[in-house]
Structures are given as structure tokens and as C-alpha cells.
Amino acid sequence: MFLKRNKSDKIHRNAFDGVGTEAVANVQEEVNANSFNYPSSGFISRIEHTLLYTMIREADIFPADTVIQTINEENYSTYLYVRPKPGTNISEYEVSYAQLTAILALAAEEWPYDSEIPPVLCQKITQCVLRYANEHDLDRKTETDDLLQPLYKYACRREAKQSKKMLKWIIPALGASIIVGNPLPAYAALVGANLAQSRDIEKGNSSNHNTDRMMSTGERAANVEHTSLLDEDGYDDLSI
């Protein structure tokens, strides 16, 4: 029997070991470990060091068709297994969905709101989680929530962070408007904040939309009647 996931542990690794591509992957792994509560010992197969992760990260470089082909060919179950701690004697590995959540979050952030990449990736990863749930007699909805709720919470934190950036512009100007009895400083600050952060705002809106699409995919997949279709080879549902 597989052990359930430990969500409280965090990985501690020097993110700057290595050079070039390896260094970038190490930094991203460290960020994901903190954002998605990776197990302290890490994973046997590290998703940040794969071609798939690079393709998802570099949306401006790789054609969508090529990325979708790679998504469809990937074996996501290899990213479930937690590296055993030194001296641990176990018959089965612990598992965690944290790496899969991390790559979903990356897809939501890096691909346009109308791209097929986020829902296709979520569909394939959800299938992997559902197969694991079926094989080990686990509740489908519980396991899907374990995958997607951290994604939703991450999106909420990202949106809150963006709102704080906006407030840094607006609050001082609002104070000035109250003092002088003129709304123009606050209005000017709002316009300036939107112009200065237009790219971040646009990316945030796209990320939120992609996250919503992924959450819908997961909810549909967790439905018992719909799951029987998802488990069939070749099923392709992008109607969300």
C-alpha cells in the first residue's frame, strides 16, 4: 500500500548548484518547493529538469502542436514518487502530487488564455491522478482536490500580490486627493498604475482564466460518469 502524501515538509536545496540550464531548473525547483510544499527529501524524478517543463515555460519558443505532442506522450506517474530519506527502509515509495500542480501553475501563467495547452495538460495529469486513485481504491474527488486546490490557492496568492502592487501606487495619491479635495491625483495614479503594470495585469488575467479552465477540467474528471470517458484511450475533451 502506498503511503499518503506529507504536505507539511519542504525541500531544502541550494538552488544555485550547477550552471546554465541546470541552474535555471534548480532555481525553479526551489521556487516550486516553497510554493507547493514539496517533501523535504525531494522527488526521485524532478519535473523541473525535463524537456516538458522547459516547453511549458518557454511558450514563445515552442510551437503549440509540438508541446501538445510531448504532453500526450509524457508518463506523469514518474513524478509522483518521493525520494526516500536516508536510512529509510520502505517497501513502497511515498507519493505527492505537488510537482504536477507546479507544472499546471506554470502552464496557466505562461500560455495565452485561448491556448489549448493548459486544458490539455490538466486533462492528462488529472487522468494520471484518477488512475492512481482507482488503483489504490481512493476517492476520486479527494485526490483531484489534492491536485487542484493548491493550484487555486496559488492563483489567489498571485492575484493578492498583484493587488498590493496596485495599492502602492494608489494609496499615496488617494491621501493627496483627500488633502487637497481633488480626485485628479488618485485618478492619475490609477491610470499610471494600470499603464506601468499593464503586462502583469494582462498576464494575471490570462493566468486566472487558465486556472479556471483547469479547475473545470478537474471537476468534470472527478465526476464518476465522466471519468469512464476520461480513462478511455484517445478521449479528448477540450469543451470548457
Summarize the structure.
This protein is mainly α and 240 residues long. It is built from nine helices and no strands.
Tell me what the structure shows:
With 240 residues, the chain is mostly helical. It has one domain. 63% of the residues lie in helices and 0% in strands. The protein contains nine helices and no strands. It has helices at 20-36, 51-57, 64-73, 98-110, 117-135, 140-180, 184-196, 198-222, 224-230. The chain is globular, with a radius of gyration of 21 Å. The model is unreliable at 1-18 and 232-240 (pLDDT under 50). Keywords: Membrane, Transmembrane, Transmembrane helix.
Shape, per Cα inertia axes: globular
Multimer state: single chain
Helical amount: 55-70%
Compute the number of structural domains: 1
Rg over CA atoms, rounded to whole Å, is 21 Å
Largest sheet: none
- Number of helical regions: 9
Order of helices and strands: HHHHHHHHH
Structural class: mainly alpha
Instruction: Please give the number of β-strands.
Output: 0
